[in-house]
Protein backbone atom coordinates (compact mmCIF):
# COMPACT_ATOMS: atom_id res chain seq x y z
CA UNK A 1 0.00 0.00 0.00
CA UNK A 2 1.38 3.41 -0.98
CA UNK A 3 0.88 6.23 1.48
CA UNK A 4 0.25 9.47 -0.31
CA UNK A 5 1.57 12.63 1.28
CA UNK A 6 -0.91 15.43 1.65
CA UNK A 7 -0.14 18.41 -0.53
CA UNK A 8 1.56 21.26 1.30
CA UNK A 9 0.13 24.69 2.03
CA UNK A 10 2.38 27.60 1.09
CA UNK A 11 2.18 30.99 2.78
CA UNK A 12 3.70 33.96 0.95
CA UNK A 13 5.10 37.16 2.45
CA UNK A 14 4.97 40.51 0.65
CA UNK A 15 8.57 40.20 -0.55
CA UNK A 16 7.82 36.88 -2.26
CA UNK A 17 5.00 38.43 -4.28
CA UNK A 18 7.18 41.45 -5.11
CA UNK A 19 9.83 39.21 -6.68
CA UNK A 20 7.29 38.95 -9.50
CA UNK A 21 7.12 35.17 -9.80
CA UNK A 22 3.99 33.72 -11.33
CA UNK A 23 2.20 32.27 -8.32
CA UNK A 24 -0.15 30.39 -10.60
CA UNK A 25 2.61 27.90 -11.51
CA UNK A 26 2.65 26.44 -7.98
CA UNK A 27 0.57 23.28 -7.54
CA UNK A 28 -0.02 23.88 -3.83
CA UNK A 29 -2.64 26.19 -2.36
CA UNK A 30 -1.13 29.51 -1.40
CA UNK A 31 -2.29 31.59 1.54
CA UNK A 32 -1.54 35.12 2.60
CA UNK A 33 -3.19 37.79 4.72
CA UNK A 34 -5.13 40.94 3.80
CA UNK A 35 -2.37 43.05 5.38
CA UNK A 36 0.18 41.55 2.97
CA UNK A 37 -2.02 42.44 0.00
CA UNK A 38 -2.39 45.95 1.44
CA UNK A 39 1.41 46.31 1.50
CA UNK A 40 1.54 45.45 -2.22
CA UNK A 41 -1.47 47.54 -3.18
CA UNK A 42 -0.20 50.91 -1.98
CA UNK A 43 -1.00 53.84 -4.24
CA UNK A 44 2.66 54.91 -4.30
CA UNK A 45 3.59 51.67 -6.12
CA UNK A 46 0.29 50.85 -7.85
CA UNK A 47 1.64 51.33 -11.38
CA UNK A 48 4.84 49.41 -10.64
CA UNK A 49 2.97 46.57 -8.94
CA UNK A 50 0.05 46.38 -11.41
CA UNK A 51 1.37 43.18 -13.05
CA UNK A 52 1.87 41.55 -9.63
CA UNK A 53 -1.62 42.58 -8.54
CA UNK A 54 -3.08 41.14 -11.77
CA UNK A 55 -1.40 37.78 -11.02
CA UNK A 56 -2.76 37.91 -7.47
CA UNK A 57 -6.29 38.68 -8.70
CA UNK A 58 -6.12 35.79 -11.19
CA UNK A 59 -4.93 33.40 -8.47
CA UNK A 60 -7.75 34.51 -6.16
CA UNK A 61 -10.32 34.06 -8.95
CA UNK A 62 -9.00 30.53 -9.60
CA UNK A 63 -9.17 29.72 -5.86
CA UNK A 64 -5.43 29.14 -5.94
CA UNK A 65 -4.63 32.02 -3.56
CA UNK A 66 -6.59 32.31 -0.35
CA UNK A 67 -6.61 35.54 1.61
CA UNK A 68 -7.23 34.81 5.29
CA UNK A 69 -7.01 36.75 8.54
CA UNK A 70 -5.50 34.74 11.39
CA UNK A 71 -7.47 34.35 14.61
CA UNK A 72 -6.70 36.86 17.35
CA UNK A 73 -5.23 34.30 19.76
CA UNK A 74 -2.61 33.33 17.15
CA UNK A 75 -1.73 37.00 16.60
CA UNK A 76 -1.32 37.35 20.36
CA UNK A 77 1.01 34.33 20.46
CA UNK A 78 3.11 35.71 17.59
CA UNK A 79 3.33 39.09 19.34
CA UNK A 80 4.37 37.55 22.67
CA UNK A 81 7.02 35.38 21.00
CA UNK A 82 8.36 38.39 19.07
CA UNK A 83 8.99 40.08 22.42
CA UNK A 84 10.98 37.10 23.69
CA UNK A 85 13.21 37.01 20.57
CA UNK A 86 13.61 40.78 20.43
CA UNK A 87 12.13 40.93 16.93
CA UNK A 88 9.07 42.94 18.02
CA UNK A 89 10.24 46.33 16.69
CA UNK A 90 11.52 44.80 13.44
CA UNK A 91 8.18 43.20 12.50
CA UNK A 92 5.21 44.99 10.95
CA UNK A 93 1.56 44.17 11.57
CA UNK A 94 1.58 42.29 8.25
CA UNK A 95 4.60 40.25 9.40
CA UNK A 96 2.92 39.30 12.68
CA UNK A 97 -0.33 38.44 10.85
CA UNK A 98 1.62 36.20 8.48
CA UNK A 99 3.38 34.33 11.28
CA UNK A 100 0.08 33.99 13.14
CA UNK A 101 -1.57 32.55 10.02
CA UNK A 102 1.30 30.08 9.56
CA UNK A 103 0.96 28.98 13.17
CA UNK A 104 -2.82 28.65 12.91
CA UNK A 105 -2.65 26.55 9.73
CA UNK A 106 0.17 24.42 11.17
CA UNK A 107 -1.94 23.61 14.22
CA UNK A 108 -5.31 23.25 12.47
CA UNK A 109 -4.48 21.11 9.43
CA UNK A 110 -2.70 17.82 8.79
CA UNK A 111 -0.93 19.31 5.76
CA UNK A 112 2.63 20.54 5.82
CA UNK A 113 2.72 24.34 6.09
CA UNK A 114 5.66 26.25 4.63
CA UNK A 115 6.07 30.01 5.09
CA UNK A 116 8.02 31.72 2.29
CA UNK A 117 9.74 34.95 3.32
CA UNK A 118 13.07 36.61 2.64
CA UNK A 119 12.74 38.63 5.86
CA UNK A 120 15.26 37.55 8.51
CA UNK A 121 13.09 38.68 11.44
CA UNK A 122 10.15 36.62 10.16
CA UNK A 123 12.47 33.64 9.73
CA UNK A 124 13.93 34.11 13.21
CA UNK A 125 10.51 34.26 14.87
CA UNK A 126 9.27 31.34 12.77
CA UNK A 127 12.25 29.30 13.93
CA UNK A 128 11.43 30.16 17.55
CA UNK A 129 7.79 29.07 17.04
CA UNK A 130 8.66 25.87 15.13
CA UNK A 131 7.09 27.11 11.91
CA UNK A 132 8.70 25.76 8.74
CA UNK A 133 10.01 28.51 6.47
CA UNK A 134 12.04 29.00 3.30
CA UNK A 135 13.51 31.82 1.23
CA UNK A 136 13.33 32.42 -2.50
CA UNK A 137 16.45 33.56 -4.37
CA UNK A 138 18.15 34.49 -1.08
CA UNK A 139 19.93 32.68 1.73
CA UNK A 140 17.84 32.30 4.86
CA UNK A 141 18.93 32.47 8.47
CA UNK A 142 21.33 29.85 9.73
CA UNK A 143 20.79 30.23 13.49
CA UNK A 144 18.01 31.44 15.73
CA UNK A 145 18.94 34.68 17.51
CA UNK A 146 17.79 36.74 20.45
CA UNK A 147 18.07 40.53 20.07
CA UNK A 148 18.51 43.35 22.53
CA UNK A 149 17.93 47.06 21.98
CA UNK A 150 20.54 49.67 22.75
CA UNK A 151 21.14 53.38 22.31
CA UNK A 152 24.01 54.06 19.92
CA UNK A 153 24.56 57.49 21.51
CA UNK A 154 24.61 56.95 25.28
CA UNK A 155 24.94 53.15 25.36
CA UNK A 156 21.81 52.51 27.43
CA UNK A 157 20.63 48.90 26.99
CA UNK A 158 17.04 47.70 27.03
CA UNK A 159 15.72 44.27 27.93
CA UNK A 160 14.84 41.67 25.32
CA UNK A 161 11.23 42.26 24.33
CA UNK A 162 11.39 45.98 24.99
CA UNK A 163 8.88 47.90 22.92
CA UNK A 164 10.71 51.20 23.26
CA UNK A 165 11.81 52.79 19.99
CA UNK A 166 13.63 55.75 21.52
CA UNK A 167 16.10 55.95 24.38
CA UNK A 168 14.52 57.05 27.66
CA UNK A 169 17.82 58.69 28.68
CA UNK A 170 18.81 60.77 25.63
CA UNK A 171 15.90 60.36 23.18
CA UNK A 172 17.95 58.80 20.35
CA UNK A 173 16.47 56.12 18.14
CA UNK A 174 17.29 52.64 19.46
CA UNK A 175 19.09 50.00 17.41
CA UNK A 176 19.02 46.26 17.86
CA UNK A 177 21.80 43.72 17.93
CA UNK A 178 22.01 40.01 18.60
CA UNK A 179 22.89 39.03 22.13
CA UNK A 180 26.12 37.08 22.26
CA UNK A 181 25.28 33.69 23.67
CA UNK A 182 27.70 31.01 24.72
CA UNK A 183 27.05 27.38 23.84
CA UNK A 184 25.73 26.65 27.36
CA UNK A 185 22.91 29.22 27.03
CA UNK A 186 21.45 27.81 23.81
Question: Could you write a compact summary of the structure shown?
Answer:
The protein is of the alpha/beta class and 186 residues long.
Helix/strand layout:
Layout: E1 9-12, H1 14-18, E2 29-32, H2 34-40, H3 50-61, E3 65-67, H4 72-85, H5 93-108, E4 113-116, H6 120-128, E5 133-134, E6 147-150, E7 157-158, E8 175-178
Parallel strand pairs: 1-2, 1-4, 2-3, 4-5
Antiparallel strand pairs: 6-7, 6-8
Helix pairs in contact: 2-5, 4-5
Taking the alpha carbons of the first and last residues, their distance comes to 42 Å
Can you summarize the main beta sheet?
5 strands, parallel
> In the CATH hierarchy, what is the class of the largest domain?
Alpha Beta
| Secondary-structure element pattern, one letter each | EHEHHEHHEHEEEE
Given as residue ranges, the uncertain stretches (5+ residues, pLDDT < 50) are 1-5, 182-186
How is this structure best described in words?
This protein has two domains: 9-134, 5'-nuclease (Rossmann fold), CATH 3.40.50.1010; 146-186, no CATH class. Helix 2 (34-40) packs antiparallel against helix 5 and helix 4 packs across helix 5. It has a five-stranded parallel β-sheet with strand order 3-2-1-4-5. The chain has a three-stranded antiparallel β-sheet with strand order 7-6-8, with no helix packed on it. It has 186 residues and is of the alpha/beta class. The chain has helices at 14-18, 34-40, 50-61, 72-85, 93-108, 120-128, and strands spanning 9-12, 29-32, 65-67, 113-116, 133-134, 147-150, 157-158, 175-178. 34% of the residues lie in helices and 15% in strands.
Amino acid sequence: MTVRKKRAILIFDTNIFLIGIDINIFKEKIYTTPSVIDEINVIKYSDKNRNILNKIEAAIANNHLIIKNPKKDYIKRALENSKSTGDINALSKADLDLIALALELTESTDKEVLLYSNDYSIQNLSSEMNIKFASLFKNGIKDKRIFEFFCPICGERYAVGSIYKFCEVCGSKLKRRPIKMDKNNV
